[in-house]
């Protein structure tokens, strides 16, 4: 028992299931498979070798059966065991020791060493590549669909490898062994097997490509159903608020209707394939057994030959169905791999430069150097914008929707690359440093706070993994979040900081989510702090409390604060007003009010100026 435990333990770690891949995933099937399985091939080939040995066991067993029958026919029954003890001993050792050990090792390889490890290997590589895509990639697809494609591709390719080891290698070894056995009996019987194999493979070549095509169509339709359902559930509150349950139900039914049609197409072809398969499979034992019986009548074969031929022909006929449906599954899985490959393997459109360096700790000097970016359009974004922000400066940004405020932040974080000009941080072009090192130097809190379906503690800890519990609680306290966190309890009765927040933080109010996000940013403690409507969801009392904390947190940091509620940025060192992608005004709060321009107009509207405007109109 300990021997098998040690063997299984070694097999479990024979493949590094989390090894990174070299380079990007290829966009053609065979190179893509090689990329997914790189590093696992020695163990896969070893498993195939054992499966081939296992396949030969079937023929060896048939040979033993034939020898036993022939020896029984020619021996004195009373002296049989004494005369044939060596044959009997070999028969017993083969069936009770060699064959079980071979099949046991084959099972261990295909259950412990290969599938569990290569699934994680493929999934981790695909997920790692997907994480490297720009936000545009995810904006253009369903989140659920991308996740589905990863799991679908990893599972399908794992099934292909497993079936090649478990069925195809085994079956090929059995067929080759059967051919050799029949050759020793009579070359004409072996020729019959070759003719039958030709017919069998012709049938396979006709059906399987069509099965592969229809399987890919079915996989694509299934992914669309997943994407539709996930999109609806993710936005379930919006669905409820607009009373569009029936509308979303119809959208799901449309996707399911397409899936049903693709599944029926696959089912019709599968039924025809099964009927043809059973007919061809039934032909083999009829032809081979009757053929050897005819040879026996002519004295050209022994009863043992008839028994051995019957054994292998029945075994091959049985395997025919198994192998054919395995091949159908393999082709179907290959179709799913190709479908996933098309979604997951596009090149990254925003990558680190080959010679990108780690940014390191920064002072926080930011320069938008004649930057133009319009998201590939002719208008929108920012145009020929030149803006310098000194280390430690507190800059407020205001402007109408679409003026370019969020675009500036996205360019600073290098979520997009500038179309013209450059963005520098401490004099370094953000395109010349690694994206992760750049973003580690910037803390950001947005109006649309992002929460993971993890504990409150883990959501705050995300700001600086490795921080102590005391530091997490201190950050939550500064963000006015500690008290409400202590009152949290999820459906599994986890409480306080251990309570889960639900998908995208749905169990929290908007103000609570923003306080968690603020705590995360406080814990990160980066030299650059970006606040994009960071207190917009807070009530006045909580906002006032947090404003005092923000003053302490912003000390010594370069701060960019975007706000529609101008009172939140009135104390900034400098305020700029963006209009149609350019700086139209800049200065302190008082200076901008005195200039009586756009900023003054925004301020008047938010502080009761509508009355004056109305009086002037009258």
Question: What do these coordinates show?
Answer:
- The protein has helices at residues 2-12, 29-37, 41-74, 80-83, 85-113, 115-131, 135-139, 143-185, 187-234, 236-241, 245-297, 303-344, 405-412, 435-440, 456-461, 469-478, 482-486, 510-524, 540-553, 589-595, 598-606, 609-617; strands spanning 366-373, 382-389, 394-399, 420-425, 428-429, 442-446, 528-532, 558-562, 574-579, 582-587.
- The protein is built from 22 helices and ten strands.
- The chain has a six-stranded mixed sheet, with helices on both faces. Strands 2-1-4-5 form a four-stranded antiparallel sheet, covered by helices on one side.
- Helix 3 (41-74) runs antiparallel to helix 12 and helix 9 (187-234) packs parallel to helix 12 (303-344).
- It has 618 residues and is α/β, with parallel strands linked by helices.
- Mean pLDDT is 85; it is low at 609-618.
Mean pLDDT: 85
Q: Count of DSSP helices?
A: 22
Task: Give the low-pLDDT segments.
Answer: 609-618
Counted beta strands: 10
Mind summarizing the main beta sheet? 6 strands, mixed
Derived from helix and strand composition plus strand pairing, the structural class reads alpha/beta
Distance between the termini: 97 Å
Strand order of the largest sheet: 6-7-8-3-9-10
The level of helicity is: 55-70%
Anisotropy-based shape: elongated
Oligomer: single chain
Q: What is the C-alpha radius of gyration, as a whole number of Å?
A: 35 Å
- How big a fraction of the residues is strand? 5-15%
